[in-house]
Structures are given as structure tokens and as C-alpha cells.
Amino acid sequence: MSPLVxxxxxxxxxxxxxxxxxxxxxxxxAVKEDPRIGLVTAALPGANCGGCGFAGCGDYxxxxxxxxxxxxxxxxxxxxxxxxxxxxxxxxxxxxxxxVALVKCCGTRSEAIRVGDYNGLADCASAAAxxxxxxxxxxxxxxxxxxxxxxxxxAIRIEDGLAIVDKxxxxxxxxxxxxxxxxxxxxVPAKATIxxxxxxxxxxxxxxxxxxxxxxxxxxxEKHVGKESNQFTFDRFLAQINYANPPTDxxxxxxxxxxxxxxxxxxxxGH
Amino acid sequence: MRYLIIIVGAVLVNNxxxxxxxxxxxxxxxxxxxxTAIGMSGAVVFVMTIxxxxxxxxxxxxxxxxxxxxxHTLAFILVIASLVQFIDIAMKRFMPPLxxxxxxxxxxxxxxxxxxxxxxxxxxxxxxxxxxxxxxxxAALGFGLALVIFSGIREKLALADPPRxxxxxxxxxxxxxxxxxxxxxxxxxxxxxx
Lengths: 271, 194
Known about the structure:
heterodimer; A: alpha+beta; Alpha-Beta Plaits; two-stranded antiparallel ribbon; 10 helices; about 35% helix; about 10% strand; elongated; B: mainly alpha
């Protein structure tokens, strides 16, 4: 037999043996999984953000099918997804309200006063630990992007020294909330459109000293909508939206003398 | 003593990534986090050791008797690819915890050049069976060592503020080069038997 034929035969035989072994292994060693796990995994958003407390969507699906996880822990799922999962599992759907991260600061480089020059590690925690950071305001966004680094959806970017959340990309996993050393990121209902973008509870004169757009607690917003409507709460000299009953009146934006009440589109991409 | 020299030689002196430039793709690709780097190293050690043993047997008992040594690259690719698939299936069935730790890395190294490279080197050097397997195991350890060191550096570098033109891959390649330079310091530490 010519060497050419032998070579072809040997390689073909090797391939055939390998194929046979794989086919046999696939048939006899296959792990029997509940088929619903695959279905639920496919129905989930697939963001693998960990917002539900499990290591990714596959893990959460496994727990859902096993019955050890509550349906509706997924923050990224909308009502339709929950409905679909409930149908697969044969249980009643529980609604989750979609929540998104909100950075409660609008002190850009031009508005917020910097009291020092920080050029250490480009990290918020490190900046905050270095004499409180370079920003005059001790409550505002440092802008070194600790939140943007942990965001699994790349929904946060730093623009003009300020973290900005893209509401359409955010799935509300809350990783940024934990990462922010200033604790100024909160999860708020996605349907709320008007926000107070300030986190400084100090009295007016002290806020004005460090920021051009800080809330001084003048209560004009509350007066505009009426105290009885219960849309605002106050923490010392800081107005806060009552997200159980958020305001919808866009005129509030112009009422704020400090321009720190903003409408949604101010923190979406392409504003 | 000979075995010790083989191990030191493969891990430090002729490090697979930093000296032979084999397996650069996972070296750059999965080195952003130490945790994943360790997982990848584990998978490489596992696959390289087993692949070396199997390819040695194939080479000596199947190809050599027919004088088909020239075709071994083709045969090795075939064997290693199916072997890794087989390991993946078998591991999922019999060792679920290990599969959970290494599973996602296994398909990534089916035709990794480090795995193929070690089989080729064993073939070229004509080493006996046990030495081949030991050499492959040590080479994989060296790969793991380089990967873990590199990922540690990259984790720290992620917090630095380099000039814009250096960011990302450029800085990773410069770092890899410097690491390789550092490993050059080991040359001459032992005299390789082959």
C-alpha cells in the first residue's frame, strides 16, 4: 500500500474513533438537567449582573426551578419576562417594579468647586480617603468612576467629572450603589421622571460656598406642588423626592432656584 | 535531580509564554482578573498534562510504526480537540465541582498553541514517556505562573491613569514585554538536558 493511502487511513481512523468516543460519551455520560432550567435561562434577560443575589442568570434559573429562589428577584426583568417565567414554572407571576440607578449629584467641573488637586489612583475610594477628595462638597460625586467600573452593563459613564447613568441600559442590579464611597447612588423607580440631583444636607450658605447647583433646602419645590401632596421629603436642608409618590410636574425644573431638580432626559445618552 | 532540572527549566528558564511565546492569546485574553487567571491556569495544567500523555502514545504506537512522523501535527490537533471535548463531558458527569470551576475555560484551550506546542516539543525532543508528561506538567505550571503574575499586575494597572495612547492592549503588551524581560534573568540557571 502506498504511504499516501496509509496516512489517509490512519488519520481517518483516528477521526472516526474520536467521533465515536464523543458520540458515546454524549449519549451515556450526559447530565440530566431539568429542561425548564434551559427555558428559564433563555427567558431571563441574560445580563448576568448578579442583582438577584445569584452568580448569573443560569444560577438563578437553577434556583428558581429548584424552588429555592423567589420568583421576581430579577431586577432587570420586566413584567413580560416575569410572566413568561411564571408560565414555565407554573406559578403565579409576582411583579417587580423596574428600578434604575440614580446619581444624586449634578455638580459638574464647572459648577462644583474643587479645593485641591488630586492625582493619586484614579479611584473614588482612594480619592475619598485622601483628605476627603478634591471636591469642595463632601457629599457630591467624585467622578473617578468606581460605579462605572463595577457596572456589568456599561450603563454608567463619567462626563465632566460626574457619573451619568444611562437609564435604558441600567438593569438596577445595585452594584454601583455598593461601590460608591459617597453613598450618593440610589435605586429609584424607572417611571419617576423628576429627580433632585443633590446629596448635600447642609444649610444653604455652606452649600453655595462649594457648589453652584446644590440644594439649599428652600422648600420652593414643595410649595409649588403643595405640602399636602407629599411628593417631597426633607433631610435637614436637602429636598428629596418621595419615590412612593413621585412628582410629575415638569414645571418644577424651572421652579428650583439652584437648578438641581432635573428631568429624566438630563441623564440619558445623547441629551 | 534530572526531573528537578526539567521542572525548573520548564517553569522558569524556558517559560512557555515569556520565553517561547506560546499561548499568548489566553495570556492577554484572560489576564484581567486574578480569579479567572487561576481558573484558566488550572484548566491548562489539566489539559496539557493529559494531552501530552495521549499524544506521546499516539506518536509512538500509531504514527511511528508506519513512518508517519511527518503527519503528527494534524493528528495532534485532531486528538487534542476531541480529547478536550471528551474531558468536558466526562468532567460534567463525574466531577461537577471541578467542572463548575474549570468548565468555561476548557473549550477555550482546545487548540491552544501551548497545548499543541508541548506535544510538538515532546515529539521533537524524543523524550521518554514519563519525562514528557512531567515536562508538560511543568510547562503548564510555568504558563499558570506567568498568567497569575501578569493578571496581578494588570489588576493594579487598571487603577492607574496612563496616557491615553497607552491604555488597554498597548499597556498590556508593554507589561508582558517587561515581564518577559524579567524572566530572562533566569536564563543560565540550569542547563536543560534537551
